[in-house]
Amino acid sequence: MLPEPYRLHHRAEFSRTVRRGQRIGRRDLVVHALTHTYDDVADVDSLIRVGGPRFGLIVSKAVGNAVVRHRVARRLRHMCAQVVDELPAGTDVVIRALPGAATADSAELLRQLRSGLRKLGLRTAPEPALGRTPAGERR
């Protein structure tokens, strides 16, 4: 479960993130992200914000019936909880599930989410695997 301070609630927050933020598409997800700075004087909520990054989910009827949509949303919330420590504190992220998300496994969705966040410049590249140097040679 994603704790309360890490969720987007209001339509205005979703709209602002989707319209003013960056977007990257993946096979089963579209990731929208907006990083807030202290220079955003026009945004009142940026001054009273506390906590880390916030996440919002969009899972439309195109994904499937209610049971499938709720299953996809639960899986995405669990993935957001896994990547919350990897993002800057002032970031809003909206994840839009595409129809393929209903049949994709969780590991693939997590890989797509992390890949999208990395392409948007919000998280660093993964560390090299144990036993290998950055160039790929064995230690």
TrEMBL record:
UniProt-listed Enzyme Commission number(s): 3.1.26.5
Top EC class, one word: hydrolase
Reactions listed under catalytic activity: Endonucleolytic cleavage of RNA, removing 5'-extranucleotides from tRNA precursor
Keyword NADP belongs to the record: no
Gene3D superfamilies cross-referenced by the UniProt entry: 3.30.230.10
Keyword Kinase: no
InterPro entries: Ribosomal_Su5_D2-typ_SF (IPR020568), Ribsml_uS5_D2-typ_fold_subgr (IPR014721), RNase_P (IPR000100), RNase_P_CS (IPR020539)
One Pfam family matching this protein: Ribonuclease_P
Keywords: Endonuclease, Hydrolase, Nuclease, RNA-binding, tRNA processing
Family: Belongs to the RnpA family.
Its biological purpose: RNaseP catalyzes the removal of the 5'-leader sequence from pre-tRNA to produce the mature 5'-terminus. It can also cleave other RNA substrates such as 4.5S RNA. The protein component plays an auxiliary but essential role in vivo by binding to the 5'-leader sequence and broadening the substrate specificity of the ribozyme.
Subunit note: Consists of a catalytic RNA component (M1 or rnpB) and a protein subunit.
Protein name: Ribonuclease P protein component
Source organism of the structure: Nocardia rhizosphaerihabitans
